[in-house]
Amino acid sequence: MRTPVALITGCSSGIGLALSQAFLKAGYRVWAGVRKEADQAPLQALGARPFLLDMQKPEDFPALAERVATFEGRLDVLINNAGIGVMGPLLDLPHERLQQQFLVNCVAPVQLARACLPLLRQSQGLVINIGSVSGYLTTPFAGAYCASKAAVHALSDALRLELAPLGVRVLEVQPGAIASDFGASSSQGAEQLISEQSPWWPFRDGIRARANASQDKPTPAAVLAQRVLRASQRSDTPAIVRAGYGSRSLPLLAQWLPRRVLDALLRRRFGL
Ligand SMILES: NC(=O)c1ccc[n+]([C@@H]2O[C@H](COP(=O)([O-])OP(=O)(O)OC[C@H]3O[C@@H](n4cnc5c(N)ncnc54)[C@H](OP(=O)(O)O)[C@@H]3O)[C@@H](O)[C@H]2O)c1
Fold first, then answer.
1. Closest CA to 174 of 156, 160, 191, 187
2. What dotted CATH number matches 5-269?
3. Ligand 1 centroid distance, CA of 218 (Å)
């Protein structure tokens, strides 16, 4: 049997790196996307095939799919993992940051799936999108990020239904808190936005707390990666995989708590 091939985006750290390791260990050839040259060497050392990919440049996707077709002749699993968290009061977010949030997290994954569709059809393959509990539970100072992940949930549902007749399966992962660089990158972005001129200057501690919330009691990324690998190997592919701290409880809270109670809890938690 020929070696199965997985293409994973955002492999420099966190979940993408753990997924690369898990799929390599399971015998896949892993094409691991990174943004920076320097991030290629560690992945190469693991046995992956690193390549440069910026999700903000969807015009590069067709050439990438062609490279995979030429080198491998197949693609079994596409994992849309790369993502950013643009944190801060919604009305303080500049237009470009709002656009970047939705381009990287929502638009680019659809376009990458489109570029890879011929290969995925041939192999009767699988698309895995990384959503989030934040797609269910909207918190203050993360409106753009939560909206982007709610959109990923809707896009994944539509893709799953539309790709079914073509023999391509779709699985969405909805992580809770997972140990990664996500809190550090989100916090760095939020710090650049916090300003004395903002009406939300008095609430800056809440902004900081939200930007780093993904690293509150986080589950190791390797645990999530194993769960995803196992789900990807099932013949009855599940539509959704939840893993990580809060991945089950937070959507339940969002669904069942009366809106007034939930708002009061969130306002207290983030100092509003
Ligand atoms: N950690 C959590 O608690 C958690 C919870 C729910 C969902 N998620 C989701 O899980 C996914 C992975 O995040 P993570 O937690 O592993 O965080 P991470 O360690 O910060 O990893 C994010 C990855 O995305 C890459 N990336 C960011 N912007 C990109 C762009 N424009 N083009 C290509 N790659 C880009 C980053 O590359 P650079 O190193 O170059 O920035 C990095 O490799 C994200 O979609 C995130 O929303 C995470």
1. 156
2. 3.40.50.720
3. 15
